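Handoff note, outgoing to incoming analyst
You'll be picking up this chain. Sequence as last confirmed:
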Amino acid sequence: MITAATNQPTLIVIGGPTAVGKTAYAIETAKKFHTSIISADSRQFYKEMRIGTAFPSEEELAAVKHYFVGHLSIGEYYSISRFEQDVLKLLPTLFAENPVVVMTGGSGLYLDAVCKGIDDLPDPDLNIRQQVIELFENEGIEALRRRLRHLDPVFYNTNDLANHKRMMRALEVCLQTGKPYSELLTQSSKKRDFNIQRYYLNRPREVLFDRINRRVDQMMADGLLEEAKSLYQYKGTNALNTVGYKEMFDYMEGKMTMEEAVEKIKVNTRRYAKRQITWFKREYEEIMLND
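Most recent structure output, in case you need it:
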């Protein structure tokens, strides 16, 4: 179990791949320090996306005070920079109540925004943006992946390759600056007035993949298809451009069978988990779970 000095403000950050058990571990850690949890899971921000994001249960939410879980509606705009600002505004209040606060999630960029700050990236060049838009519209998401694999292999290997908007922004910056987007994201860290301890949870690969497969089966049993149907009118939003919902939308549009859709969710989730682990290995201390 994580330990922390309690004589100075300390943010305990718990990252890790999907289905590894972050929610339960973060709750136990928060209970140990009698503190609250800040969620940095960018999909759990949206109250309508409960099943497909493995939203904490009512019992889990009641066990420990959670912030940034279900605080937005699917149509609301939100960004990494807004999240950074909101968390930094909240933390002094939480630290006044308790010197230790827990933050958890699988979205590495959101965790890093709080820990290190958002880099000052150039305003987009509209001509380059149009080129990237046309590349995506004419050649599809695979074209974005190919260009990023060449221009920024670090970003390619550590991010969600299903998120075309994030890839488009990364490609824009690469083309505009002549530098890898990932390099610009790690140029400098902003100084924080609190201590930060960063960990990521992991499990043996076969155990993690089995947990992912069983979680997907449970999501289907809990009504993921019905949830996706209720959100279909918002399918163009960035929030729903994520594993689970995309495959359900494809099934609803007749692009694949239900069996194919469920299997694709499992495959894509396992791939995403591997990219998450690659991200966290860079700067987070590993906690291997074997239970």
